[in-house]
Amino acid sequence: MKSIEKDFFNTFTDFQSLILAHMNRGDINGVTAGHYNIIEFILRKEIATGREVATAFNISQAAVSKQLKFLINHDFIIQKQDAADRRKFNLSVTEKGRFIIENSETFRKNITRQTASILTAKELENFNHLLGKVLNHIKL
Known about the structure:
This protein has helices at 3-25, 33-45, 50-57, 61-73, 95-118, 121-137; strands at residues 77-81, 89-93. By secondary structure, the protein is mostly helical.
């Protein structure tokens, strides 16, 4: 690894540690990034079905069912049978699930404000552009 790559690796590791330390403050064991994304998706839609979640994330119904079971069993989301179509089950976010999303958004807003106060407007614009460029090309 080149010297600049090592420097970036160390800085990125510190940044990642900051984010993970914040996530762990909620002491929500077992919640993965995938779980978080599902909770946020359902929260944004207000009500969703397992099929909608599977389609949105381009994953199988079986994989979604496993994730939803975890989220339901840990009271992050609830599942109710649709009144009009008894074959359909609607998902919605509980207060516990909403807390995770809102807490994360508050953290991101705080980091955004702190970053904006440290960097000049031009530096922030460049940082945003470069981060966006990297994110658009990295497929994990």
